[in-house]
């Protein structure tokens, strides 16, 4: 005979555990199901093993969605301060690293243990590892056919996340269920992901692999003109295949295939103006002038890549050439040919269309009792603790509503 529950949560990651704990602590009989053999791998590997569990400045403006208003309700009802209260209750030491990003001092394991304890406080039942083979609607709710027996549940919460990092258990289960119940999707694609370039185009920059510096990056234009796209000031990292680092991960979520990105490698100065003004006084070689402002290896590599002789004397170069170099350093415009894909993406953009869900409860408008939370939904945070905050907030919204 099928086991009966008020709530079956599929996916015991960040959002799923939060939701199960909240519903369980409200007296609902909850079962939490996951196909992985190891619990919450994404939390474990997050933030370099220290879990950037929230961002104290998180607000709706830090999220991408076809409907930017959708996330407001859940985010305002479960805030970073609410999650911090929980973290403090479990005496987990934490610190702020950069722009409101909060990390555990010791280990991401502490967040997993905290969520497990919260589930235990709600008397949550576990089915793990267990594979949900089919999910069907019945007169009283749903019937889940799993490889470890059938489950009947009045409500089902889909918390199976996105497609990023398939090797630790990511699947398209949530999207398949959405389609099964006739819900619209926003096309998923990798986000917070390194960008790649055509091999021949990238060849001159390969020697720069490993160099990192703070830049301005935008999907629009920079300097003097208003940026037409998103804009971030963060660290950029040159790699053998392209560009990475927080600046690129951030902009990748906004980048559309075929579009260029523009990078200002020296956002605090107008390079063309400084070079032209320096002509009279600077007797130095161009390479040495640029190396005053950028790491020497980068200065040399960029001059070569952009076709400038390292040993040319600044005073001998026409202004038009110096303006061209200024443009290359202040507004380096380059078109990625793609990204490193789901293998390296921290998150998946897109997912279940928010038009299909209630922003108060996360329940599907046309399928009473079926909820979608976390990364499965078309709400994607910036880099910096925002994605976990969405997982906690959307999990809590559903957990309190069921
Ligand atoms: P997940 O946490 O991915 O959980 C989904 C769960 O569903 C998993 O346990 C999975 O095993 C299970 N599942 C999947 N398919 C099935 C199925 N068919 N049947 C049963 N179970 C299934 N965000 C931050 O805010 N801060 C960070 O520091 C951070 N670091 C990151 C580092 C890396 C390397 C990566 C990849 C992501 C990082 N993120 C970070 C993003 C963050 O991990 C996710 O946004 C968040 O985990 C999403 O929560 P979720 O509960 O929706 O999905």
UniProtKB/TrEMBL annotation:
Domain RsdA/BaiN/AoA(So)-like Rossmann fold-like, first and last residues per copy: 6-399
Record InterPro entries: BaiN-like, BaiN-like_dom_sf, FAD/NAD-bd_sf, RsdA/BaiN/AoA(So)-like_dom, RsdA/BaiN/AoA(So)_Rossmann
Cofactors demanded by this protein: FAD
Domain of life: Bacteria
SUPFAM superfamilies in the record: FAD/NAD(P)-binding domain (SSF51905), HI0933 insert domain-like (SSF160996)
Keyword Ribonucleoprotein: no
Keywords linked to the UniProt accession: FAD, Flavoprotein
Family matches, as Pfam families: HI0933_like, HI0933_like_1st
The RsdA/BaiN/AoA(So)-like insert domain, residue ranges: 189-347
PANTHER family linked: OS12G0638800 PROTEIN (PTHR42887)
Protein name in UniProt: NAD(P)/FAD-dependent oxidoreductase
């Amino acid at each position: 005979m099928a086991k009966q529950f008020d709530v079956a949560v599929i996916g015991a990651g960040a959002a799923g555990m939060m939701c199960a704990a909240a519903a369980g602590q409200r007296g609902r009989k909850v079962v939490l199901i996951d196909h992985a053999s190891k619990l919450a791998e994404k939390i474990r590997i997050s933030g370099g093993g220290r879990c950037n569990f929230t961002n104290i400045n998180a607000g709706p403006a830090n999220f991408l969605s076809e409907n930017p208003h959708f996330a407001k309700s859940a985010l305002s009802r479960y805030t970073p301060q609410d999650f911090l209260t929980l973290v403090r209750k479990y005496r987990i030491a934490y610190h702020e690293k950069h722009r409101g990003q909060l990390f555990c001092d010791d280990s991401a394991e502490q967040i997993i243990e905290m969520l497990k304890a919260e589930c235990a406080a709600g008397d949550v039942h576990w089915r793990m590892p267990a594979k949900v083979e089919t999910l069907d609607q019945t007169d009283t709710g749903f019937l889940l056919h799993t490889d470890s027996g059938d489950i009947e549940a009045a409500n089902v919460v889909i918390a199976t996340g996105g497609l990023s990092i398939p090797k630790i258990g990511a699947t398209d289960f949530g999207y398949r269920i959405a389609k099964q119940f006739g819900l619209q999707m926003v096309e998923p694609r990798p986000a917070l992901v390194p960008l790649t370039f055509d091999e021949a185009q990238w060849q001159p920059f390969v020697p720069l692999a490993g160099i990192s510096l703070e830049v301005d990056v935008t999907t629009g234009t920079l300097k003097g003109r208003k940026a037409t796209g998103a804009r971030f000031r963060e660290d950029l990292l040159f790699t053998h295949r392209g560009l990475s680092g927080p600046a690129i991960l951030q902009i990748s979520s906004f980048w559309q295939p075929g579009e260029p990105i523009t990078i200002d490698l020296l956002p605090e100065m107008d390079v063309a103006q400084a070079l032209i003004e320096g002509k009279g006084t600077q007797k130095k070689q161009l390479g040495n002038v640029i190396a005053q402002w950028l790491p020497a290896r980068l200065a040399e590599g960029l001059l070569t890549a952009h076709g400038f002789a390292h040993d040319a004397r600044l005073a001998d170069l026409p202004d038009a050439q110096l303006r061209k170099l200024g443009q290359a350093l202040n507004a380096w415009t380059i078109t990625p040919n793609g990204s490193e894909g789901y293998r390296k993406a921290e998150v998946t953009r897109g997912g279940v269309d928010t038009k299909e869900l209630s922003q108060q409860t996360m329940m599907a408008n046309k399928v009473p009792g079926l909820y979608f939370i976390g990364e499965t939904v078309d709400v994607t945070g910036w880099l910096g603790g925002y994605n976990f905050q969405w997982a906690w907030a959307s999990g809590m919204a559903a957990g309190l509503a069921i």
